[in-house]
Fold each of these.
Amino acid sequence: MTEAQDLKRTPLYACHVEAGARIVDFAGWEMPVQYTGVIEEHRAVRTAAGLFDVSHMGEVRVRGAGAEAFLQRLTPNDVSKLVPGRAHYSGLLTEGGTYVDDLLIYRMAAEDFLVVVNASNADRDFEWIASRAGGDRGDVEVVNESDRYALLALQGPKALEILTGLASAPVDIAGLKYYGFAEGQVNGAPALISRTGYTGEDGFELYLPPEAAPAVWRRLVEAGASPAGLGARDTLRLEAAMALYGHELDETTTPFEAGLGWVVKLDKGDFLGRDALVAQKAGGTPRKLVGFEVRGRGIARQGHGVVSDGGAVGTVTSGTWSPTFEKALGMAYVPPDLAAVGTPLTLEVRGKELPAVVVELPFYRRPR
């Protein structure tokens, strides 16, 4: 069996091939990186609507009499504040307060949750969660439901208009708040419709039966959505300063360092990593995530260094040419004394020094 045959395919693979997508290996999946081009797809999301296949993401069901208490102790955000029909952003943390992964938690019912994790970590995250469920009070069932779902992300200012023509009652999709969700139908197929996304735009994520996904995809495209690949997804999320595991987040990074301290609820009771985060909040972080704008010619990419007085002081986590602002932007970890907006930075890019300046995050905020 060849390496290509070992790669997984989403239920939408044939749709991508039909649309002429360039397919790449991403986290063990054959995924579309682009169709017509990253810049065109990026701008379609910012001005109209783009459609992404994110079926490679992992879904883990956590339910039972002790499910809320279990997730309270496993994650830093306050699960008790969620009501059915609401989701929040959180993470899996080590004892040291660093990331195993970032994730979304959907409260389906009183003791029934859907945890959505990154594709690259899906199997590891499932094992992490399941291995910690056994000793909890009450019954906690942890089930890997990734094969039950195809996941489409419809993003952009025209997403609501496009989806309205295909979604069926009883869901009032216009009335869904950000991070709200409901179960209904799209194109006649049962769907969990979530007002979430990873682009900085308004939009929806649709959890569908795998066999229904191709027809829904084609109907959304017919209704005006532009297929968009992983390339545009990355430039869009970077402009919106949304952290990506493997870039801004990893097992050396804490939420406070990544500017995600708002997910840490230290007053909710004990949770995995809390002691380390209490200490870091009191003592300060050794580094901070900042946004930067390149002032010379060139683009800084992940792994390029930030230098000062001839020595390395930081690392670029993400960088790109921004289709919206038509300039090179990125994010980097730097010492706190270099983190203030307006601070000049020197980036080391392929042996050359590139001037940059710290700017406010996010780079992009959608018009209200």
Amino acid sequence: MSERILVVNADDFGRSPGVNSGIIRAHEEGIVTSATLMVRWPAAEDAAAYARRGELSVGLHVDLGEWAYREGEWQQLYEVIESESAEAIAAELQGQLERFERLVGRQPTHLDSHQHVHRKEPARTALLRSADQLKVPVRHLTPGIAYSGAFYGQDSIGEPMAEAISVSALIAVIEDLPAGVTELGCHPASADDHDTMYRRERLRELETLCDPRVRAALDRAGVTLRSFAQLAAA
């Protein structure tokens, strides 16, 4: 495939009101085409209501917990399940899938996970099994869909990298896209309203994703924006 197709996916939909409004604005005014929903959080119902009435392609952001680098070490902010057994993770995943369908009224268009925990076992096998049953892609793991995490404003221990989420950096990502389908992850928000190690960067991401120079760069580079739902329908 010589065509260059870009899916821009916003993680953490449903995490907080600020995340919800940021993702919605980045979809309506910017280049976000898809999002992944965290079904366990109170703002998930509002996010799902938007998904039901709009054109945003929504998948499941599997949530098993969160870690943050603070005071020189990784600290766990919360834990969804204590067990790391395959059975416990499969059961939690099934529960989140069922809640997704109750909230949104349809199955997810794609799967990924909070802080990419599904890149390792046993979550990896659990998500692949569910994706096979649903006939949907999984971030990092589905052949033919590359993943880029280049648009992220921190390094591996949370030190800020503001330049990575600038307009010029996003334009460079677009210009350097390989042929085929690439998913670009992002985390926009309109307010800093929840406890996480990635906070103020979300506000900067939102402004960058909505900057008209980014849309112009897509047109200039001949890159086609698509959602996961559109990929499935093609």
Amino acid sequence: MKSRVFASSIMVLALLSFQACGGGGNSTHKSPTAPNEWTWVSGSALANQLPVYGTMGAASPSNVVGARSSASGWIDANGSLWILGGEIPGSSAPQTINDLWKYTAGEWTWLGGASVPDQPSIYGTEGVPSPSNAPGARYPGGNWIGPSGDLWLFGGLEPETIPGTGWLNDLWRYSAGQWTWMGGSNSPDQPGVYGTQGVPASSNIPGARFSAVSWTDPAGNFWLFGGDGPTVEGANQLLNDLWKYNGGEWTWMSGSSTSGQPGIYGTQGTAASTNAPGARFDSTGCADASGNLWLFGGVGFDSQGASQSFLNDLWKYSAGQWTWMSGPSVSNPISQLPAYGTQGTPSPTNVPGGRYSAMCWTDASGNVWLFGGDGYDSTGNFGDLNDFWKFSAGQWTWVSGANVVNESGIYGTQGTPSPGNFPGPRMNAVALTDSFGNFWLFGGGGVDSSGTAGTLNDLWEYEP
């Protein structure tokens, strides 16, 4: 069954987290920020809000991006925030949309895609931009911001409501107001062409997938890891292949060309060419200023090959090797539980609990920050989280947020930072970093200010 219904039956809620680390220029908003405080910038404090599209191409303070989860997001060279598609509330079931939005100077602009859900892709001619081209509605597989501010999108899973669809490996670029189909197939369910590990080739292409992790490093290289490929009904479709895209060519860098691989952890804190995270999807990741790639958790295979585990391991990829940095290598009912310790106090025994669809950022000092997702709390309950963590000098610190699931968000006054503000728990949100080092959080599926569970359209900023 080519839908997220299968995954939801395993994991209680719909899946797919997509996070990206981007660089920007000017601030995207007019509100002040304050160190170590959250600011509710835009959107509603209540769930399941409808969109207000306005006129395509025209910014307006009355325009509203509707509630959604599993969207793609970017911050461009001018500091504008971009949102593409995602899963929106429907009358009887969630629907998927392909609308493209930009947020700048405190206003949203609808720039492309349809205002109605379940649109198929319009590919046009490969390599040729056109105003009529558009990627179809999908749960995204990966996205990046190019050195010139172009938006890039790879793969994903199209909903069953679009005839003849499935898992995708198409590569798209958005530049100068037009989409270009850059590579990959316009047919679903395509296998990867791996070539020789470490050797770029124009014929190489990652296979179709969704819920992968993607990064952009400081050199402008695009990176893609893992995800869920075709044959989603099986338990061995998860991937752990690592790819790099540069100069129009893909390079298979690490991991296996076959699915269902257990993790090879090695010694914690020690890099090795044989190390590799296990196959997984719904992980989260971010890149730091030194070019290191960070990967946390998700649903997948531990060191013993246990599948569909809720993972809480932290990995770093640097200089061509993986290092297992933190968390257990074996996933079981005990190891998946968090150890919060004392709020604000780092400890070698602290660790976030097993979770998927969390959000990740890095700060200017190279520290890794983790927010929310769906996972285990301090009491062993499973649900939506809004705990906020920092990994620094080899230790986790529970910074703020609740250590129990399904707590309401505290919004305060829109545009005003406050130590009392805090986003509600959520999964499948967009997480971005601007050029000032501020963290941005948009939407997702979670809990609003009234304690109602639903889909969100709130935009938040945090200055670490």
